[in-house]
Amino acid sequence: MKSGNFLPSVGGMLLLGLIAIPIRGLAQQPVFPVWPGVAPGSENWTQREVAYLNGKQRMIRNVVTPTLTAYLPARGKANGTAIVICPGGGFHFHSWDSEGIEVAKWLQERGVAAFVLKYRTLDTGATEAEFQRQLNFLFGRKTVGPDGKELVMSDKEAAERKAIPLFAAADGRQAIKLVRQRAAEWGISPDRIGIIGFSAGAAVTMGVVMEHAPESLPNFAAPIYGGGTGGAPIPADAPPLFILVANDDVGASQGSVKLYSEWKSVGKPVELHIYSKGGHGFGMNKRGLPSDSWIDRFGDWLDVQGLLKSAH
Question: What is the predicted pLDDT for the residue at 7?
Fold first, then answer.
C-alpha cells in the first residue's frame, strides 16, 4: 500500500499551553494492543511514554505502542455500532480526555461501542525542556539554546515529522481491522464500524478513509477540524462523511469546506457544520459557545444514518 499526500503537515494544528505533571492510572477500561506484535516501523524506538496534565486535562506523549481503550455499552443497550476515536495533538501528544475519553463515554451511553485509539506520536524527548523544544518547532516559535543561538531542526527530526503521520494512519487502519475481527465478541455489526478524529486525529481518520484494504474500510467517518484528501482521488468505496469545524479556525475551516466539496462532487454522502466561533481544539470542553453542543449534531447525523438504532 502506497502512502498518499492526504496528510497535512503537523505545524499549527493545536495551540495549547502545556504544564507537564506526570500522572498515573490513566485507564480503568479494557485496553487492547492494536498490532499483534511491535508496530511495523517502530521496532527500534526507545522513547518512554509520558502521561501528564494540561490543567485538568490528561495528555499522553511519546506513544510507541498503539492501543485501543474500549468503552463497551451494556449488551442490552448496545446497538451494534462501533466508532474508533482518534484524539488530536499535532502528532506530538494526545488530548486524551476532551478528544478521546469524554467522546467515548458519550457514545457508550447511546449504545455505541467506542474505542479510543492511542496511535503513535513523535518522539518529543524525555525531559520537559526537550518537549518544549519540539512544541516550539510545531508552532513555529523560535528556540534558543543555552549559548543564546537559535536551535534549528535536524534532518533526522524533519524526517521523523514527515513519517509520523503515516505511522499514525497505519495504526488507524489496523484499529478498524481489529474491531472488525472481534466484532462478534464485542457485539458489533461488522458493517457499522466508523472512525472519528480531531485535528491530527482527523488526519489519521482521512488517512484511513483514503487508503485502506477491505478489512480496514470504515463504514462512516467524521473528521473534526482537520483532515483532507491532499488532492488524491477519492476512493470508489469512500464512506459517508460528517465534517465539523469552527469558522474562526481559519486553516481547518478552509480545508473542511474543500473536503465537503470534493465528497459532494463525486456524489458521496457528506454533511458539513461550521460554527461561527470555537477556534481549534475545543473537543468536549464547554466554553459557553454554540460549538459546545457539536457532539449532539454528530449524534443527530448518526441517528439519521440509522446507526443509533439496533442492528439486531
Answer: 44
Phi, psi of 147 (to 5 degrees): -85, 5
Mean pLDDT of 117-121: 98
Higher pLDDT: 282 or 139? It is: 282
Identify the residue whose cell numbers are 499549527.
Answer: 12
Decide: residue 75, CB within 10 A, 0-12 exposed, 13-18 middle, 19+ buried. Answer: exposed
pLDDT value of residue 26: 55
Per-domain boundaries in the chain: 31-304
Calpha distance 294→284 (Å, rounded):
8
Nearest one of 27, 38, 92 to 64, comparing CA atoms: 38
Of the candidates 75, 49, 53, 73, the residue with the CA atom closest to the CA atom of residue 63: 49
CATH superfamily of 31-304: Alpha/Beta hydrolase fold, catalytic domain (3.40.50.1820)
Distance CA 69, CA 51 (A): 15
Least Cα distance to 172 among 41, 84, 83 occurs for: 84
Do β-strands 82-86 and 193-198 pair in parallel, antiparallel, or remain unpaired?
A: parallel
* C-alpha dihedral, 206 to 212 to 214 to 220, nearest 10°: 0
What are residue 144's phi and psi, to 5 degrees? Answer: -115, 135
pLDDT in tens, 181-198: 999 999 999 999 999 999
pLDDT at 142: 81
**Could you tell me the CA-to-CA distances from 298 to 103, 224, 304 in Å, in that order?**
11, 10, 10
For the ranges 31-45, 62-76, 122-136, the lowest mean pLDDT is seen at 122-136
Cell 525542556 belongs to residue: 129
What's the sign of the alpha-carbon dihedral 115, 241, 214, 311? positive
Distance, in Å, from the CA atom of 259 to the CA atom of 275, rounded to the nearest integer, reads 16
- Residues 145-158, mean pLDDT to the nearest whole number: 80
Quick check: pTM over 0.85? yes
Question: Cell numbers at residue 105, please?
Answer: 463515554
